[in-house]
Amino acid sequence: TLHPGCNIPPVSTDYLFCVFSPSTVTSCSADVPTTSAPPTTHATSTTTAAPVTNTTSTALPPTTTPTPTLPTPTTGKYSIKTDNSTACLLANFGLRVGFKQGEKYQEMNLEPNGTKVTGSCGVNISELQVASNTMTIMFTFTNDTSKFRLHALNFTAKTSSGVEFSEANTNLSLWEAALGSSYMCNKEQNYTITNLLTLYTFNLQVQPFEVKKDVFSTAHECSLDDTSILIPIIVGAALAGLILIVVIAYVIGRRKTYVGYQTL
């Protein structure tokens, strides 16, 4: 029960304690449950920085500059002579060599002026070596008593970088012709000697055996030069076409001039 001397508003469900003397109220206190304020939450806004990505910009490989087209090489005339100064080997050609050293492809023309020519003639093997300031190339020819061929080629070059390039193939079968004749191919030809070496020839004619009177014998022409088969084919096709036209004209003429008989 609230004492009249305690002017304290009643609190629901709570007890009021008053301490007083019989005449005077000395103190009053309300047992009010203390409502604890929720703890203040200090929200810390943490901004997480995006992970730094070290981007490495890889440069594109430089564009390969095409190798300038070299001019057509000059045709050189080379020969090997016996002790009595009679030629035993004859060779005419313009020569370009392409080779790959590392990742770099290079081409060189053989310049006939100033070249040094050496070699030998034998019954079954003949050799021709041509050396210039930039390259040395050795041709080895063999024969089997009926035909000859280029059997081996050895190439060495002095590159602009100072590194020597050398490549060889000893199992070739090129420039084949009957013994006692020469091999000829006037048009440009290219030969893959190895996967690193390519040979380009121009106005080629060689005869490594049985040279007579210092001149080439009858030439066996390469397929690029040989037009002896093409001409008969063209002539035969023209004649066949002409015969077909005549037959067609004859048939048409017969149909136009034919007059049927009427029954009386």
UniProtKB/TrEMBL annotation:
<feature type="domain" description="Lysosome-associated membrane glycoprotein 2-like luminal">
    <location>
        <begin position="73"/>
        <end position="212"/>
    </location>
</feature>
<dbReference type="InterPro" id="IPR048524">
    <property type="entry name" value="Lamp2-like_TM"/>
</dbReference>
<feature type="disulfide bond">
    <location>
        <begin position="185"/>
        <end position="222"/>
    </location>
</feature>
<keyword id="KW-0458">Lysosome</keyword>
<dbReference type="GO" id="GO:0061740">
    <property type="term" value="P:protein targeting to lysosome involved in chaperone-mediated autophagy"/>
</dbReference>
<dbReference type="GO" id="GO:0005886">
    <property type="term" value="C:plasma membrane"/>
</dbReference>
<dbReference type="GO" id="GO:0097352">
    <property type="term" value="P:autophagosome maturation"/>
</dbReference>
<dbReference type="GO" id="GO:0009267">
    <property type="term" value="P:cellular response to starvation"/>
</dbReference>
<keyword id="KW-1003">Cell membrane</keyword>
<dbReference type="InterPro" id="IPR048528">
    <property type="entry name" value="Lamp2-like_luminal"/>
</dbReference>
<comment type="similarity">
    <text>Belongs to the LAMP family.</text>
</comment>
<feature type="region of interest" description="Disordered">
    <location>
        <begin position="29"/>
        <end position="74"/>
    </location>
</feature>
<keyword id="KW-0325">Glycoprotein</keyword>
<protein>
    <submittedName>
        <fullName>Lysosomal-associated membrane protein 2</fullName>
    </submittedName>
</protein>
<keyword id="KW-1133">Transmembrane helix</keyword>
<dbReference type="GO" id="GO:0000421">
    <property type="term" value="C:autophagosome membrane"/>
</dbReference>
<keyword id="KW-1015">Disulfide bond</keyword>
<dbReference type="Pfam" id="PF01299">
    <property type="entry name" value="Lamp2-like_luminal"/>
</dbReference>
<dbReference type="GO" id="GO:0005765">
    <property type="term" value="C:lysosomal membrane"/>
</dbReference>
<dbReference type="InterPro" id="IPR002000">
    <property type="entry name" value="Lysosome-assoc_membr_glycop"/>
</dbReference>
<keyword id="KW-0472">Membrane</keyword>
<feature type="compositionally biased region" description="Low complexity">
    <location>
        <begin position="33"/>
        <end position="62"/>
    </location>
</feature>
<feature type="domain" description="Lysosome-associated membrane glycoprotein 2-like transmembrane">
    <location>
        <begin position="231"/>
        <end position="262"/>
    </location>
</feature>
<dbReference type="GO" id="GO:0031902">
    <property type="term" value="C:late endosome membrane"/>
</dbReference>
<keyword id="KW-0812">Transmembrane</keyword>
<dbReference type="Pfam" id="PF21222">
    <property type="entry name" value="Lamp2_2nd"/>
</dbReference>
<keyword id="KW-0967">Endosome</keyword>
<keyword id="KW-0732">Signal</keyword>
<feature type="transmembrane region" description="Helical">
    <location>
        <begin position="229"/>
        <end position="252"/>
    </location>
</feature>
